[in-house]
Fold:
Amino acid sequence: MAIDTRQLVRHILERAAPEQLADEVIALVLLSAGEACPEIGDMIAGHLSLRLDEAVCNRVLDRLSADASPLGRLVAARLHLEHHQPEKADDAMSAALLTASTPAPTVLAQRARLRANQGRLSEAIADLQSALASSAPYALFAKSEKLVERLIASAAWAPRRKARLALLASSTTAILAPVLRATAFARGVELEIYQGLYGNFRQEVLDPNSGLYRFQPDLAIVLVNHRDLHLGPLEDNHFAMRFAEGLRDLWALLRQRSACHIIQLGLDLPPHGAWGSLEDTLAEGRRRAIASANLTLSANLPTGISFLDPNALVAELGDRFWSDTQWYSAKQYPAPSALPRLADYLCAHSMAALGLSSKVLAVDLDNTLWGGVIGEDLLGGIRVGPPTPDGEAFVALQQYLKELQQRGVLLAVCSKNNRADAEAPFRQHEAMVLKLDDFAAFAANWNDKAGNLRTIAADLALGLDSFVFLDDNPMERAWVRSQLPQVIVPECGSKPWEMLAALERGLYFETICLTREDRQRHENYRANQARSALKHDAASLEDFLESLEMVAEDGPVDDHTLARVTQLVNKTNQFNLTTRRYTEEQVRAMALSPDWWCRWFRLADRFGDHGLIGAILAHRSSRRWTVDTWLMSCRVLGRNMEQFMAACLLQSAWQSGAAEVVGRYVPTEKNGLVQDLYPRMGFTPCHDLVGQYLFDLRQQPIPAVAFIRGRPAGSQSGGILKRTA
Amino acid sequence: MYNLAAIQNIFREVFDDESLTLDRNSSSADIEGWDSVAQVKLVLAIEEHFGLQLSTEEVSSIRSVGGFLDAIERHTRRAA
Structure:
């Protein structure tokens, strides 16, 4: 038995007596888990504000804010709106968007409206663009179209391009046109749309004085569907061929009289027919006739025409592509729920015709092109190729990238890695499809990725608005998106097959013809390009770190953490000051000894828990602490975590009465990253010993930790460590 | 009461008019722009919001806010 959650919540809210309503709501919100449904948030807030006075509502708000669940934040946002407190509503919506793994389009659109009403127009435009950019349901378009118009009319709207588009259709276009305009708006393009008379498009093309020609379109979309053929089950399939040839004649005439690019939508294949499989097998079968009409339409396309097969959408949407009721009542084709996706495809063709398709795909390396971290797992440890499932999927993703490159998309690497480590798999791992030569730019360093993308764009002499950036790490995606809003950063999950699907779904690199230049573009860029060093750019990195809401935790190494600490001791290469390896028994012995201070560290942020990511093992005497081992996973590099660890070490030494802390840096091939760690943490070099640093606890204050809040060692682990025999 | 408030919010968004105030009797004759295209948008937005599907008969006969309220009531009371 399936119960619709909305109906269930409605039932609970309506049955609750006024004095119970507040408690019921709190219980509902506390029960909610994961992504919140905006409609349920709206319903809860609506019931509260209609039935309880503002004082009681505020008490509920206080209780919900302590919990900070996504649903609680949506309820709070809606209540603040009802109580005319737009700033608080904005804060609550922003918090809800930050905690969601994928920002909810509905909430983005609500915040866009709120900001538009407050005159914050540029922010409203950015929010509404994100809301409508991908996979928003039709209802959101219906509710947002007028707001799109208001924002396009505002002074803050600065389109990448304006274009004039004519819709020539055998069905109604009144519902499609605003969806198309909103979809183009989301991509920074302003479409002025001409809708010909319903079902009259042939006459419009034939009549040289028609409104179509007066409009002077840049683009024309010809929208037909299988019903136009009026085919019986056993039609002479010459009829379908003639239909297709008739359309080709119309293209020729239109192109003679107008310089527009024509996008021809092919015919949809209905899944069933009264004649069953004979519709496919008989020479004159209906499905066979439709398929041959599509072949006639799409073969040997003349210049200036592109062909879009609607059956690609049918494959995506299934029978949601059609709505018989909408056809019979409004001559609406396809179903309204299919319109946002159809508009995606039509916009992709339009962007390609206008020369606005993306041109560069910049990719991360670790866990994006292969599984694992090359700097830690080394060549033998990364997963690419058989036998692991994700290893095989990484090969498929690389193959897809290779095919993009072969048709003119430029590939670039943008990765936090040592250059030599990053290049090794391309040079030496035999399962890698992509080689170093396949990349037009290769940035592997420890700078922030937004700065690296800027440098790559400058090197390739291409605008950042022609870039797509693929990274498995949601933090890096959010950072690049915040710094470079013109770069497309798809929400791509973290698995290779999810990343591949996100690239395919995005239609970023749609192309309508293939030129010799396309095939050669990659070689040209490689020849021209001298790889210049990438400059560091830290524009408002602080704001970004602040927004991560990081919380760190530390505790003594105990039975729960011994295995993980030992694993880190033995596999960490990069952020590792001394690279001393110990067995589990050796670490256990140190942790049990009163002469040692052995500490683990965890880090969490709004994107999730990174787990146990670092450790310090220090030998202590009454006067001096000596750091034997200090290491951290490179997953949390650039997060200020090392400062938290340093402060924790120094504080503990100070509290135990020590006078100084001494640390050593032992250089290896891999750990250049931390060669200046001790000076950065306020240690001074010892004159007599190279690589040794000292922190004088009697003279120096312990530096404050920025961006990370500390939480005392988890109460779940009492620091108990059992001696083994 | 909530249903009316929610419908009012949807109308305000579809028509981008924050000042729109509705009651049961508000009809397509009173509200500027409530034409057949707006009707499709309103119906689909209301269906999505309440998680239900109106019948073709309902869609073609509704001309007032009360019509939407009654239809929502019918669909959500089915089980009660």
